[in-house]
Amino acid sequence: MTGLPVTGGALPDPDHLPEGEEKVRAVRAMFDTIAPRYDLVNRLMTFRMDVRWRRLTVTRLSLPSGATVLDLACGTGDLCGELVRGGHLPVGVDLSYGMLAAARTAAPLVHADILRLPVADATVDGVTCGFALRNLVDLAAFFDELSRVVRPGGRVALLEVAEPPNPLLRWGHGIYFGRVVPRIGGALSDTAAYRYLPRSVAYLPPPGEMVAMLVGAGFSDVRRDLLSVGVAQLLTATRG
């Protein structure tokens, strides 16, 4: 998420995709609200596939043990936990107080804007980010910030939702994500939030554009892999 820390704010209107500072306030309020049961809903709505996706994200980071890794938009610390198990030294960063308060990780946690990281240039070995790209106001600026803080030769691994390329699977996924997920989220957490989240996929640029943004920000070996028949995607790249 991006923007200066703010308090309060209305949750996103599921029938309206906000922009700019309105999006910052709405997304932050949403994650503050759903933080207590965020992990539970994730496990249920993905049939625990999210656990496997996070493990793969750390594997594909391809960094040696002991690497310093920023986990951006860290939420409750799931990826921080995987990084620790992978032998790395993670630092979680998020703008949602609610998410950080609900975190279950021993990794250091920082409340900060991930477009304006309180990190010196070229000082971290890698970056992970899980399911947050569509919540950013300026994706190109985010990639530029990754390029700034990651040392040459360092790696990034960015996990995000996707739409299956197969038309039949895409139709079925649309029904599940658009109708079933809001019911699960509404029963266990917040209906408006889980109606908004499927619609937020519209914020993501086309895959080729995201790859081009990473290259333009100074990354090489950019790779995009579809996971679980295309319901998720993993972008990996090396800082040039």
How would you explain this protein's 3D organization?
The protein starts with 19 loop residues before the first helix and ends with a strand. The radius of gyration is 17 Å and the shape is globular. It has nine helices and seven strands, in the order αααβαβαββαβαααββ. It is an alpha/beta fold and 240 residues long. Strand 2 (89-94), helix 5 and strand 3 form a beta-alpha-beta unit.
Keywords:
240 residues, alpha/beta, Rossmann fold, 7-stranded mixed sheet, 9 helices, 42% helix, disordered N terminus
Topology of helices and strands:
Elements: H1 20-34, H2 38-45, H3 49-61, E1 68-72, H4 78-85, E2 89-94, H5 97-102, E3 109-111, E4 124-130, H6 139-149, E5 150-161, H7 167-188, H8 191-199, H9 207-216, E6 219-227, E7 232-239
Strand content: 15-25%
Query: Which blocks of ≥5 consecutive residues have pLDDT under 50?
Result: 1-8
How would a crystallographer describe the biggest sheet? 7 strands, mixed
CATH overall fold name: Rossmann fold
Order of helical and strand elements? HHHEHEHEEHEHHHEE
Oligomer: single chain
Strand neighbour order, sheet with most strands: 3-2-1-4-5-7-6
Q: Give helix % range.
A: 40-55%
Average the pLDDT over all residues and give the rounded result.
Answer: 93
The domain count comes to 1
| Number of distinct helices | 9
Strand-pairing-aware structural class: alpha/beta
CA-based shape: globular
Number of strands: 7
CA radius of gyration: 17 Å
CATH H-tier superfamily: Vaccinia Virus protein VP39
The CATH class name reads: Alpha Beta
Q: Identify the CATH architecture.
A: 3-Layer(aba) Sandwich
Distance between the termini: 25 Å
